[in-house]
Amino acid sequence: MCPDFKEEVCPQLSVPPYVCNGCPNRHRCTLKKRIYSAKSANDSYEKTLHEAREGFNISDAELADIDSFFSPLIKQGQSLYHIIRNNRDTVPCSESTARRLLLSGILEARKIDLPRAVRFKKRKGKRNNMKVDKKCREGRTYRR
User: What is the pLDDT of residue 144?
Assistant: First the structure.
């Protein structure tokens, strides 16, 4: 409340690990404490991961605007790079966002509509070579 008041800060909080968990005076100390909790840190981490993987953070109106801008030009045979470089002032999003929307199938235009898009066959996985025990071959030779 007082403008001259300065809260006293524990010197333990100014050096790594910036918490009071290992402080021997933790129970007697009257200063404001910071305690590390692994569970809350993990929950925060998982929440961040979940939010990062939710998808595109654009409204339906913005998506319709992006689609109406890029799809006709892509269907005319222009590449994304060409569209963005020639229309710098009117582009509604970045090149990477437009490419992600196009490749994920959200836009009306598809990847195959791009002039240099190539469809590759799916790569074959590694063959599972079964290892044979060498001892099972003992005594099995062509010599008589």
Answer: 62
